[in-house]
Specification:
Structural class: mainly beta
Number of helices: 1
Distance between the termini: 65 Å
Number of strands: 64
Helix content: under 10%
Radius of gyration: 30 Å
Number of domains: 4
């Protein structure tokens, strides 16, 4: 029998480092888990979708259906992504649907327990419980057959948690059946997965390793595998040993918001031999919100939006630093008044989901007063979608995590991540600034500064709106939306400056369409497409940018766009500069036909297999189908011979001051594109056309004349 002794230990709720040499292997748990009715690894009956599952069509969903002729297999079922216990080797190219069913028996029932389906899937499914449909994802409406395809793609990797309702309404004592039909996006899809679990909800929710609780005092359980432990403290409370399960227990009082509780184990000599910690967010009962706020409101510590909430015109919602804002599934915060979410670097505000596997909807600003998001983390919003949905007339459903209609936002030092989840294929979009909403037209704008966009889909999308995107960091972008996508003209024009775009998994970094932004001083590297795409009628100005290692091209000028390119450095791209007609003249894009036109001054284009490439438009109706480029005072590898033309109408004006000489860049492999001493680009530019400063903010010229490229040479220049 272990001897309990009380050891006075002062514990700081923000966390205390354990003593040197302590194992730090203790585990702590909070609350009890839910009851599993259908568990991971259970055996299911299934039939391959080569025909209807039963006759009549829905008979297989009922209790008592004779499935003895069906095959048996352990979940998950599927192929192609190495998460399947039962591999359907013949599915690809043969059938797109699989029907699975699992009967289970209940001896008793807690009628008030919440039943939830935890399911990992690829691409879509329809789930029924005791013959009643309870969940549908990525499937068209109406009756599905074995030939029905999923309506959109969804990659497995992160299970979705779907609340189904109360146990008393869905289940009964005796035999029950869970029936699920899984549908692929296409017959030739590369993968398919169906991995379901049916259970009741735990009495505590979790966001990763963080527990969410609604009571001030909770019981924590600690376990250690270290021999000779004589006492344990949990927080500042002495733990009581339970010999039945070899754990220590203590009731701990919480403060509203985030708590870090540390447990420590001591031997008989009162020496600390093990430790561990648990993160808990406590939400007081008064901090639950839904519906329209009736007055100015201040949120602190932690709060839950149980349903969509509205900040009406004339009201303000203020969120204090360090607040955790928990959004239940599908919930939005709609702002018609003002939102001031002003966190700090040390105490950011976190907009997140309420429980693993769930997503909330968005922050929607509609004709709101000027609002701010400072030092906020935005994650787990259900924000996957395509901005092409906004091209056609009619009502719109915006999918981005933060949407502003006819109003202004300041978004400073925020992080956008895990949209809509933390899976490897997540590609949710972050921000949309919209001036042409059919129901709420009006000028919209945003200043977006110092933000991070980490392994998500599109960072910023605009329609006819001014945005400043300044000093932001974009990396790991996924999907077929660009990091920054600008549609339509605005006054003043958008300003995209001094940002870093690194290694997106797919697509372009900056893409204005029918828009004339100023694109200044950005570093773009590692795209599988273009660094910058300038598309459709407009007059963008591109100055002091460094574009490196972009597979398809550094800069593309398309569809009647007329661009000015000054003091840019373009290195190691498939094509340095492309001018052509992309097509897409019809819906939904309706791009203007015609080639691209560019004036190139003081630029460096080097180590690109095709430095400059021009092509005629294939449109036979356009007055001038040619692409046109004027090059002056630039270092182009291959000189005039480095320009290739496809077609009879495209032209090159090879102006004065151009050279063909290695620019002696400092260290491109490590993203240092400064000029080395002796570079032929030094003092070789046109000072009259050069900007007043270079990418570092250093004055131009630093010598007798401006240099070529994004960086002005200086003896003191650095990366």
């Amino acid at each position: 029998m272990k001897t309990a002794c009380i050891i006075s230990v002062l514990i700081c709720m923000a966390g205390v480092l354990p003593a040197p040499g302590v194992a730090r292997a203790m585990t702590l748990h909070c609350g009890t888990g839910g009851e599993e009715f259908v568990a991971l690894g259970d055996t299911w009956r299934f039939v391959r979708g080569l025909g209807p599952a039963s006759e009549p069509a829905n008979a297989w969903q009922a209790v008592g259906f004779d499935d003895s002729a069906w095959e048996a297999g352990v979940a998950g079922l599927g192929y192609g992504d190495e998460d399947d216990a039962t591999v359907l080797k013949d599915m690809r190219g043969s059938y797109a649907t699989v029907y699975i069913r699992r009967e289970f028996s209940l001896a008793s029932l807690a009628p008030d327990a919440v039943v939830e389906l935890a399911i990992d899937y690829d691409d879509g499914f329809i789930a029924s419980l005791n013959g009643k449909e309870v969940a549908r994802r990525h499937m068209p409406e109406g009756t599905a057959t074995y030939r029905t395809l999923a309506s959109s793609s969804h990659e497995a990797g992160t299970p979705e948690i779907i609340p189904l309702g109360m146990a008393g309404d869905l289940l009964h004592v005796g035999t029950n059946v869970l029936a699920i039909e899984g549908h692929n996006r296409s017959l030739t899809s590369s993968d398919f997965s169906l991995i379901p679990v049916l259970r009741t909800r735990s009495d505590t929710a979790r966001n990763g390793q963080t527990y969410i609780v609604l009571t001030e005092v909770i019981e924590l359980t600690a376990r250690t595998d270290i021999a000779g432990v004589e006492a344990v403290t949990i927080g500042d409370v002495a733990g009581l040993f339970d010999p039945q399960d070899d754990t220590w227990r203590a009731e701990v009082a919480l403060v509203p918001g985030s708590n870090t509780i540390i447990a420590r184990a001591f031997d008989g000599a009162a020496q600390e031999v093990d430790s561990g910690f648990i993160e808990i967010v406590y939400v007081p009962a008064a901090n639950h919100f839904a519906g329209e706020l009736t007055g100015d409101t201040i949120l602190s510590h932690a709060c839950v939006f149980d349903d969509t909430a509205v900040v009406p015109a004339g009201r303000a919602l203020t969120i204090l630093p360090g607040t955790v804002v928990l959004m239940t599934p599908g919930v939005s915060l709609v702002v018609g008044g003002q939102l001031l979410a002003e966190g700090t670097q040390d105490e950011p505000i976190r907009f997140t989901h309420y429980g693993d596997g769930t997503t909330w909807k968005q922050l929607l600003f509609v004709e709101a007063a000027d609002s701010r998001l400072d030092h906020c983390i935005v994650e787990y919003a259900d924000s996957e979608g395509a901005h092409q949905d906004y091209y056609e007339a009619g009502p719109r459903q915006y999918h981005e995590a933060v949407v502003a209609l006819a109003c202004h936002l300041d978004i400073n030092d925020c992080t956008f991540q895990k949209l809509p989840n933390d899976g490897p294929n997540a590609e949710g979009d972050a921000i949309a600034i919209i001036s042409d909403d059919p129901d709420h037209p009006g000028e919209a704008s945003a200043d977006i500064t110092g933000c991070q966009f980490l392994a998500i889909g599109q960072g910023v999308h605009t329609r006819y709106s001014y945005v400043l995107v300044d000093d932001c960091f974009f990396t790991g972008k996924r999907g077929d939306n660009d990091d920054v996508d600008l549609w339509g003209e605005s006054t003043p024009p958008p300003l995209i400056q001094y940002n870093i775009f690194l290694n997106p998994e797919h697509d372009d970094a900056i893409n204005p369409t029918r828009c004339s932004p100023i694109i200044l001083g950005n570093l773009i590297a590692g795209t599988d497409d273009h660094g910058i795409v300038l598309r459709d009628e407009g007059s963008p100005i591109v100055i002091n940018n460094v574009i490196f290692d972009c597979r398809n091209g550094g800069i593309a000028v398309e569809n009647s766009c007329q661009a000015t390119l000054i003091n840019n450095t373009i290195v190691n791209c498939g094509r340095g500069l492309r001018l052509f007609d992309l097509g897409r003249w019809g819906p939904p894009y309706r791009l203007s036909p015609g080639g691209g036109t560019a004036t190139v001054v003081n630029c460096i284009i080097w180590d690109c297999p095709r430095p400059i490439n021009l092509a005629d438009s294939p449109n036979t109706q356009v007055a001038d189908p040619g692409s046109h480029v004027t090059v002056m005072y630039s270092d182009i590898q291959g000189g005039r011979a480095g320009v290739s033309i496809s077609g009879q109408h495209s032209t090159v004006t090879w102006g004065e001051g151009n050279i063909d000489a290695g620019p002696l860049l400092a260290d491109p492999a490590n993203l240092d594109f400064h000029l080395r001493p002796g570079s032929p680009a030094i003092d070789a530019g046109n000072t009259a056309e050069a900007p007043e400063t270079d990418r570092d903010g250093s004055p131009r010229p630093s010598g007798p004349a401006a240099d070529m490229g994004a960086h002005e040479y200086s003896d003191a220049a650095g990366p």
